Amino acid sequence: MSKSSHRQSPLNKTVKPPVSDTDNPKSHKTRRSPSGERGQRRRDLILDTAADLLADEGAEAINTNVLAERAGISVGSVYQYFSNKEAILTALGERYIQQLGSNTVAALQQDVSGLDFTTMVDRVIDPMIAFERKHPAFRHLNAGQEGQITLAQAAQRVEQEILMTIYDLLLRVSPDLNPIQGQQIARMTKALYKGMSYLIGQEKEIHKEGGNVDNMIADMKRMIAGYLKQHLS
Could you give the C-alpha distances from 21 to 94, 123, 147, 169, in angstroms and in order? Predict the structure, then answer.
């Protein structure tokens, strides 16, 4: 985002990188770092398998024995990389937070000049929705759980960066936007997107009830487009 928008933004704060394990002695460390391509593939397999378990059955379904069996590796191989369940969840959460942050910020930094509000909202929101659906396990992670302090701090920083990037997008659409009004519009837009994220998390239940999440998301995108048109035109 531009330096000029940072100077104007009342939301601007220094976004620090997530706290490292050395900064937080209470965080759950991995047993060892993967060495070479084979080690990285093994670690990724463990995390991918944990993500599948988390998405299917929730955090309570994850234990090293079940995880090892589903991944087709020995329990000892799991312990080579992760000391316990909490370490696995923390590593998985940190991976998703990094991906979520880069995916969402990239979507919000697209060139939207010359687009009508409906097209602009589609262009920005659709990649974010696709990420949410691709990684259902992320919604099951509770960043506030004991032992996941680092994860919670990282999540807060990503949230702040997303809010700042929304504000920057608003400035690109309406350069003369009043800073306080811009702050309110950014927070409202972010809140409406959070509503879409909630709907995706409830998609199975909504489908069982005969509902259609895609139609509901389309309605919410129209709400965002109408809201932006009302306040930025």
Answer: 12, 37, 12, 34
pLDDT exceeds 60 at position 46? yes
Report the pLDDT value the prediction gives residue 35, as an integer from 0 to 100: 61
Residue located via tokens 């936007």? 177
CATH of domain 24-232: 1.10.357.10
The label of the residue with tokens 């060495």 reads 35
- 150, exposed or middle or buried, with CB in 10 Å at 0-12, 13-18, 19+? buried
Q: What is the mean pLDDT of residues 103-116?
A: 89
H helix count then E strand count, the chain:
10, 0
Count the neighbouring beta carbons within 10 Å of the beta carbon of residue 183: 18
Sketch the domain layout of the chain as residue ranges.
24-232
Mind listing the pLDDT tens digit for each residue in 89-109? 888 888 888 887 788 888 999
Residue 82's DSSP bridge partners are 30
**Quick check: 158 and 97 in contact, CB under 8 A?**
yes
